[in-house]
Each structure stands twice: as structure tokens, then as C-alpha cells.
Amino acid sequence: SKSLKVVYSRKLPGFMSAVIIGNYGNTFITVTDFKEITVWETESGKTIGNKIIHPGVVRVETSYDGKMLVTCSDAYDYKSLIDKSATDMKFTKKYDNEVKVWDLKSGKQTGKTLDFTNYFTIAKFTRDNRDLLTLSPADLPKLWDINKGPELKYILGESTGSMYLGGLSACGNFMVLGFKNVVTVIDIATGKPAYAPLIFDSNVTILNV
In whole angstroms, how far apart are CA 207 and each of 136, 149, 159, 200? Predict the structure, then answer.
């Protein structure tokens, strides 16, 4: 068997809360202390642009053209949970549930902040880097036009109370949404189902696109 060679390593201050591979693998993203975000060039290990600060950040994703970054923050203070013992864990609300889009080169936020009422919002760029899909447990799936605010384009789905599963097709023309025992393929151009929903005998728990 062959051993792997370490090309380079980086030691960062603070608690490492996430390491994420960027789209196409050309970059990777580090998040420290659930707030400080740094984008790195995979091949050289050099940083790209300025550091981004978003307190409470739990999810990060780059756009497909590598020019933008979307961050999602959660209200709960996960850093304090990690610092406490298992018998002393308490969920403490400290931050806002927000989604922000950033210019990767400058490290500055572009457009307005999207506020949500519940935790663990997921945000994904469409393949053409023009729109943003958001999913949240207490909110309907929504598609946003990034260049206009972001401005709401479509509200998808019909009812809340259960987490929507979802993703975007590789071709960029469709999004797939799962809610309880129903899976629907949406045409991004129209915001309408591409064909009749798929109905299963039991709830869909994993949906990979």
C-alpha cells in the first residue's frame, strides 16, 4: 500500500468548527469558533480574499464560479455546548438565524441579510450562480434572485412543520424537494413541478441529488 504525502498544513487560532471542500475541489473553507471564515486555494494552500466574519455560522458554501460565498448562522451557541460536559448541556440562543451572501475576493457582504424564524437553514447556489435555494424546518422552500437583493422569486411547497429535504440537479435546471412521503422535481425556470410528484409508502429520510 502507498502512504499519503502531506503537501502542507496550516495551524489556525481558535476552535476548528468546520472544514468544507468548495465546489469543484479548487478551494476549501475553514471556519473557526463558529464565526471566522477563510477560503483557501487547494493546490497552493494560500488564502483567497479577506476573512469573513459571521457569528454563529454553521453552514458555508461557495458558488460554482468561485466568486461568492453563502453563510448560514444558527441561533444556538454551539461553542458553549462543546465546552460543557454532556451532563451540563443547555441550548442557549445567542445569534440570529441568518443567510448572507459574500463577495469572496473582498470579503464583503453583497445585498441584504435574509432572516429566518428557525434554526438550521440550508442555502445552495444554483448552477448558473444567479439564484439561491433556502430550506428551513419552519419555513417553506424559497428561491431567491441574488442580483436583486436577494429578492424572492418563488415560494415552493405547501405546508410547514416538517423539514424539507432538497437539492439541485447537476445540469442546474431542476431542484428536487422531499416533504414527508412526497418527492417533487421543480423546473427552476418556472418554479413549477416538472411532472407529477413521486409518492412513497413512508416518509423520505435521505434525499441525494
Answer: 15, 29, 19, 13
